[in-house]
Specification:
The chain is of the alpha/beta class. It has 15 helices and 15 strands.
Amino acid sequence: MSLPQPIGRQKEVLYLPTRGHFAILGTAGSGKTTLAILRSAFLSNTKTEHCGKTLLVTFNKALVTYLKHLQDSKLVNVTIENYHTFARGYLAYRNKMSRNTILDPDRREALVKQAIENVLQHYSLHPFCNYPVELLSEELRWIAQYGITTYNEYQDFDVFRSAEMRFDSKERKLVFEIYQTYLNLRQQSGKKYDWDDIATSVCEELDADKSERLYQHIVIDEGQDFSPQMIRSLAKAIPSYGSLTFFGDVAQQIYGHRISWRDAGLDIKQVWEFKENYRNTKQIAKLGLAISKMRYFKSISDLVEPVSPPADGPLPTIVEFSSPDEEKLFVVNQAITLARTQSVAILFRDRQDEQIIQRLLQKESRLTTIRLHRDMTTWQAGAGIRYGTYYSAKGLEFDAVILPFCNNKKLPDPAAAEAFGEEDASAQDGRVLYVGVTRAKIRLIITYCGEITNLLPSDTSLYEKIIR
């Protein structure tokens, strides 16, 4: 498959200098992934003076699989990986990575819970005893993602450079005690890293590593989902004469929305903005824009407002059902009908909902169905049904997208609302919903039973409403 050609301002970004740090922020459908691929090919071109081995790195494994299936000869000098594959590979090269040394997420949650219990047994009357475990667990993750290693760093963190702190200065001392207890418990269990602090070890190793860097150029796609510490480590992984190019869309930041890429300390002279939407019809783009103007997006800096695309299409459709069973059957049958001639994606908030539709698809459909997931190794283009979580569809696009179960009992997630508060949960799931909506090129169908989620705009002119 040959690489696409750059359009409009994309050409300016493609040929940015080949030395230094560069940031490109764009709206959904503006061609960020396309430019990340083309920029990688340009930087690694052996016919140029600036040519050098190039790493194209992203967060989502499904997107890595899609990028690799392109198999264009211009990418022969480009390595395509997700961040954690890069990190594990580098640490292994430095003899800092052995087998089974990374703590898996389920075991991490268990150790965090144990750390909380161990610490709070000495503070039986402290309000922390009533805090949800999930809230404290997320704070420990945030500490690791920023590369904070001492209590003083945590206490002195500049709140004006990022999202508001969840805990006041008095509470942070106890939080950090829990964090250190968790690290001790992890070490006792024989695990050196977890998925959040592995980037700190990469930074430390790169600081000590005086050998020639493996990559001259690094291109980051979907960079809004990288923690500051991940970005710092990638900046350290290039030589002084190399380049780092960051592509991102903060509206699609669905991993750690209290994280800011600006806190990574990149030396950015100018931020480029891509406002043109080349993917969606103007009807879908209008809905995406309306979502980005809702209250849970108001605190986001660096949000790029899109220019309405010229392509026309049907209004997004909202379908209301009187029973969950009717909704499930409609979703499956609609996907089967559309997938005879189009690429169709059914996207879900979580794996539980995915499994419900997966069973029905296996029963009802004779068409090719592909599950989008972190361990997928092949990609099939063209018509057919794809299904997976909103998270797994990051960076991808489909002719038609179906978003089932968009009711107010699932969105925002009740467990997240209980742990983090309604506002925080809405901010997280609102961005997830935005990602799902903007995956659709031509057709978008949203279904629900009961009451529709309040994360969608109430403006009825944005939709065609059907009651079944």
